[in-house]
Amino acid sequence: MSKTEASTVSLGDEDEVKEVLADAVLGLWDVVNNLTRLRPSKRDRYRVTIFGSARVQPGTFGYEETKRCAAALAEMGCDIITGGGPGLMQAANEGASSAPERSKSIGIRVDLPFEQEINSFVGQTFEHRTFFTRLHQFVLTSDAFLVAPGGIGTVLETLMVWQLLQVHHLNDTPLILVGKMWPGLIEWAKESMLSTESPLASPEDMSIPQCVANADEALAVIRPHHAAWLKQQGDAGGET
């Protein structure tokens, strides 16, 4: 029997078919993981991802504050990335699109069982079928994360970025939590994870997210990081 014949799997052999499919899927993940190791040597734009609720309406304080913050970031020369939907995502994209700079207003959306159209202020759109690949793109393309008030989805995004910073899959990437809802989350984590006989986290893990009261304090955190990034990009461009 030839090698080709020996490796042939009948479609009637359900267990073997499942094994072939599982091996193929795992092989695809290996390819994807290998490709995501690639990074450009130099990028033209600093990118800030803004997470936040899809339910906040235009004209409210949260909406207008998020829009103002995104506009200030765009005026600094930053691209703004959101989930591309309504609410605070729309506020951030609207703020970015109003700046005179040539900043990009980017939306990374996901298919949902209920329709959620891309907001009209997005200039560039990426589409995903799963939250997992969508979150991966946020991580790969962002230099800082700014988290406005939000619900379960926003908390999921925040905790994923926090965990990646904890294990150093992300480094030197600000995670800034804006507003009154976030200090309570950090206090809960400290009380629940550090007060047991066998701590469930390290004290330094609790300092990874930076809680700030408002957009101005968030901008004050991002400005020096942005300046350092610009200097690093300039130094990289000067290397031979």
Automatic annotation (TrEMBL):
GO molecular function: AMP nucleosidase activity
Enzyme class, spelled out: hydrolase
GO cellular component, one term: cytosol
Reaction(s) catalysed by this chain's protein: AMP + H2O = D-ribose 5-phosphate + adenine
Residues making up the signal peptide according to the UniProt record: none
Pfam families, per the entry: Lysine_decarbox (PF03641)
InterPro entries hit by this protein: LOG_fam (IPR031100), LOG_family_nucleotidases (IPR052341)
E.C. number: 3.2.2.4
Name listed for the protein in its UniProt record: AMP nucleosidase
